[in-house]
Design brief:
alpha+beta
């Protein structure tokens, strides 16, 4: 049986994603999904080595501003995407993500 090892609950989210490196952001075809306050999974065909530092900009529903943060690549599933851990969510961004996750967990059907 699979044992969940994540510290934070995740919920599904499909939103556009801007990825930056060295201060330059590009709107990508990648999709951010499985969001938590600790990180996310990014559907991507791009390959980033584990340990790479990336900058992200994305929006959660009902938020007024884009969330900007830095993340470290924790795992890579070549051809499918990468798992990232957020390193510096601001207080406001953290609150927006927490609210989004809590609202979606509350409305999720029970197994």
């Amino acid at each position: 049986m699979f044992q969940e090892r994540r510290k934070h609950p995740r919920v599904g989210l499909r939103t556009e994603l801007w990825i930056g490196q060295d201060g330059i952001f590009t709107r990508t075809d990648e999709t951010l999904r499985d969001l938590s306050v600790g990180g996310a999974f990014v559907e991507s065909r791009q390959v980033f080595p584990v340990g790479s530092i990336l900058s992200f900009r994305f929006k959660v529903p009902n938020a007024t501003n884009l969330i900007s943060c830095t993340a470290i690549v924790r795992n890579m599933d070549v051809g499918n995407g990468l798992g990232v851990q957020f390193m510096d969510l601001s207080g406001e961004s953290l609150s927006q993500v927490e609210q989004f996750v809590a609202a979606n967990l509350a409305s999720a059907p029970l197994p």
